[in-house]
Design a protein that fits this description.
This protein has a domain at 23-274. The two termini are 26 Å apart. The chain contains 19 helices and 6 strands. Helix 15 packs antiparallel against helix 18 (482-511). The longest helix is centred in the last third of the chain and has 35 residues, at 528-562. By secondary structure, the protein is mostly helical. A hairpin with a 5-residue loop joins strand 3 (206-209) and strand 4. Helix content is 65%, strand content 3%.
Length: 567
């Protein structure tokens, strides 16, 4: 660990904090239906879309109607993407002549991109046509991100409004998220990435002759446009198999910093949106502080572990940098920071191979995902994820002082607690349940690339990544099999929609409650005490749930590494 490394981390954190307020202010105006500097251009387009869809922006929906619209829209997206993948060989923009994607892989991929997971059991440049990448995958990158943002804003309205029956209009919220936020920023990012050297072309793959005289195929395509939304929307699916470790997806340190900022920008800004809409920005800063504490702890551990390296290599006199699985152009510090960011934000993009990290370096990405998308998290998903933990923390605090729990004047009662617990418990059910089955199933065990605890970690990481809607992987697992494609797909569905529906149910319950006046006994939720309570609740719930599984994987691997054993 070096001073220069920490300065790079602090620069990232500083730029991110600077972005929070202006982006949060802009997003608040968008979701409140107020005029923005883009309204003269986009407002007519917005009204035209509502006319085509038969939607009235002034009509709001009960939470059940909101949830039904969301589920039907995502079902339609799944069917459309599945069809594109199965019939891509007859669709246009296929200069490399890609064949149809297999049934189980199409099922897995369609769910993956609809659920904002972008788990990839395939190599993008060798499997997907340009049409599939653009019309199939990139479109879902936009709308799955907008779906998460819509849920978050519906939940925010439940706290911001004094009382009512509706939480908004799903079609309006999703349209505004896409049209005013995701699309304009992605256009700018795409142009910047092209300037930095990322390809954006419909041309065929290029054949080149190497210095040895061999023939090499260099994959190209509309990369920059997909790169922009995969990062900003915390999707993570790479155009190339190597993802952001590929020089065409991440050419240099500037593009690397821009990608990391893109991953966190909207998720962090949502805390400011919350503070503005409830009338107290300190509430948003308190939530962001809790996220920040967990993030900094994770960065410190991974950076320390990767900078320290493997003691077995040290005993052999190899004291050089621990660069296995990392790109030279990013080094240890930026590889460590990227790994923590991408797993904290449920993005899943990688600029280094997490399976090549030390045991403790790989432990933190696992924990980040197992905590449930709460350390900034995915766009929208991170915010409604941490609200679930806030409800539990407030309920526990209320029990300790013998007072009815309340948050921002809304009483937290049995219904909200049941929904919050249901949403939180569905994640370990998918992560640990499928892992337990896979570790005793010979056909699943045969897919791991490493024996011992690291092999167990490969399976645990895969199902954790799926249910957390992350999409990153320990690279040793060969997951393109009917078993893994099917069960990982089911894990993605559980991790996405079994959280969404309870979150919307909570919004529907809270929206109808009148505010309770603040009194001397009201627990302040914009203070350091609340931040500590929230962080403690997240760590305790996560620790009690996942520590045994972590002990079987990365913890054991670290201990045997100290003892001088490798796998």
């Amino acid at each position: 660990m070096t001073l220069n490394g920490w300065l790079q981390i602090l620069v990232f954190c500083g730029i991110l904090i600077i972005l929070v307020k202006p982006l949060g202010a802009y997003m608040t105006r968008v979701f409140s239906g107020e005029r923005t500097f883009l309204s003269p251009v986009l407002a007519p387009v917005e009204r035209g879309l509502y006319t085509l869809a038969g939607t009235n922006e002034r009509e709001e929906q009960h939470w059940t109607a909101y949830a039904f619209a969301l589920l039907m829209f995502n079902l339609a997206g799944f069917l459309m993407l599945y069809g594109i993948l199965r019939f891509q060989y007859v669709l246009p923009f296929n200069p490399a002549g890609m064949s149809a994607v297999g049934p189980d892989l199409s099922f897995n991929t369609a769910i993956s991109f609809v659920a904002n997971t972008n788990w990839q059991s395939y190599g993008g440049e060798s499997t997907m046509s340009y049409f599939s990448q653009m019309v199939g995958l990139a479109v879902q990158n936009f709308v799955s991100s907008a779906t998460g943002m819509a849920i978050a804003i519906g939940l925010i309205r439940a706290f911001a409004r004094a009382s009512g029956k509706s939480i908004g209009n799903f079609w309006v919220d999703m349209t505004r998220a896409t049209l005013y936020i995701l699309l304009p920023i992605c256009i700018v990012l795409t142009l910047v990435y092209v300037y930095l050297g990322v390809p954006q072309t419909f041309g065929a793959y290029v054949r080149a002759t190497t210095l040895e005289g061999a023939q090499q195929t260099i994959a190209l395509g509309p990369v920059a446009s997909q790169l922009a939304i995969k990062m900003l929307g915390t999707n993570g699916g790479g155009f190339f198999n190597a993802n952001s470790a590929h020089p065409f997806e991440n050419p240099d340190s500037i593009s690397n910093m821009l990608q990391m900022l893109s991953i966190f920008a909207i998720g962090a800004a949502f805390t400011n949106v919350f503070g503005r809409m409830v009338g107290n920005q300190r509430q948003g800063w308190a939530i962001l502080s809790a996220m920040g504490i967990l993030f900094i702890i994770g960065v410190a551990v991974v950076y320390w572990a990767e900078a320290s390296g493997n003691p077995i290599m040290h005993s052999l006199g190899l004291q050089g940098a621990n660069m296995e699985g990392k790109e030279v152009r990013f080094g240890i510090v930026m590889s460590s920071l990227f790994a923590v960011i991408t797993t904290a934000a449920s993005c899943g993009a990688v600029n280094a191979m997490h399976g090549s990290f030390t045991a403790l370096g790989g432990l933190i990405p696992l924990i980040n995902m197992q905590l449930g998308e709460v350390i900034v998290g995915g766009v929208g998903a991170g915010f409604y994820g941490i609200i679930l933990f806030i409800i539990i923390a407030i309920f526990v605090a209320g029990l300790m002082v013998g007072r009815t729990p309340e948050y921002l004047g809304k009483k937290i009662e049995a219904k909200e607690m049941k929904m919050a617990v249901l949403a939180i418990l569905c994640l370990p059910l998918a992560m640990l349940g499928f892992t337990a089955i896979a570790t005793v199933l010979p056909s699943a065990v045969s897919s791991i690339g490493t024996a011992g605890p690291h092999g167990f970690s490969e399976i645990l990481y895969a199902y954790t990544s799926a249910a957390a809607n992350n999409g990153s992987a320990f690279g040793g697992l060969s997951a393109n099999t009917p078993w893994f494609n099917t069960t990982l797909g089911l894990g993605m569905l559980m991790g996405r929609f079994l959280v969404i529906v309870p979150a919307l149910a909570i919004a529907g319950s809270l929206i109808g409650k009148k505010r309770v006046p603040t009194s001397a006994g009201t627990f302040p939720t914009d203070s350091g005490l609340f931040v500590g309570l929230l962080v403690g609740t997240i760590l305790i719930v996560g620790g009690l749930t996942f520590l045994p599984s972590l002990a079987l994987g990365p913890v054991v691997e670290h201990l045997v590494m100290i003892a001088g054993q490798t796998f």
